[in-house]
Amino acid sequence: MLAGLTFDMVALLVWLGLALDRLLGEPRRWHPLAGFGNVAALIERRMNDKDAGRLRGMLAWLLAVLPLVAASWFAIAMLAQLHFFLALAAHVLMLYFGLGLRSLRDHIMPIAAALQAGDLPLARSLTSRIVSRDTAQLPEADLAKAGVESLLENGNDAVFATLFWFVIAGGPGAVLFRLANTLDAMWGYRTARFLHFGWAAARIDDLLNLAPARLTALSYAALGNTRLAWQCWRAQAPQWSSPNAGPVMAAGAGALAISLGGAAVYDGELEQRPTLGSGPRATGKDIARAWKLVAGTAWLWMGVIGIAGVCLA
């Protein structure tokens, strides 16, 4: 935690950051993460070629992330010299720009509405904006599955892991995690292009997500079918390719008592993925249930952080 911030202050800043996210949502223009993505794409084009290995990928990661994290620390330090409340405002803004709770709702719930209305073309178009799998021919069940999986996984990445690192290191902690997570989304693929260059981005994101992903999975389990969530987490998570998405999605699917995972088409190729959860296949109504689980987890974290702030003040 940053010097000068007591835990009750951190709790208040968390509440303010989430309130800003709820009130304003994702910036439609000039989002810092979008700008960072453009810079990262430029770095990758310049540094990733046929000879690029893990070392160059690590250097590219450091070049993309460290200057911005250092700048965030420096900005807060300078603002604190002017007035303590300016530094607090900077922390809140950094958290706000790293959060995506309302954005998740705004992207996911229209898919549920389209499925409820039987408008599969619209549901396919909306789903294609949030997932990398092919959606052009997906039936309702697969669209619902894609929506629920995206919501559960991004609930961790765009909300709870960001909150975790904010509690640990304030605004710069949230900045660090969101930049690392963005690079993993851009470079962390096991393709010929990124197998070596993106190795560092994938491993660093795995490391930063180890604790928050398991706290997220525990929260999903606590707010849903706890016994089934725990059983699915233990049995199914080790089979998933991602060490952090596995626990989050297996526990979330178990908490909702539905089945996720299975076959999906990526770039025209069928990929057989392990089953997650247990129960009937997801439907459009389950997207709304998954959103309630993620939103309830946000309230749970806010409550726990608030109580900790009072007790540790």
Automatic annotation (TrEMBL):
Pathway: Cofactor biosynthesis; adenosylcobalamin biosynthesis. The lineage of its organism: Bacteria, Pseudomonadati, Pseudomonadota, Betaproteobacteria, Burkholderiales. This is Cobalamin biosynthesis protein CobD. Pfam families: CobD_Cbib (PF03186). One of its GO terms (molecular function) is threonine-phosphate decarboxylase activity. The chain crosses the membrane at residues 58-77, 84-101, 158-180, 290-310. It is found in: Cell membrane. The keyword Coiled coil does not apply. Its main location: membrane. NCBIfam families: cobal_cbiB. It is a multi-pass membrane protein. Converts cobyric acid to cobinamide by the addition of aminopropanol on the F carboxylic group.
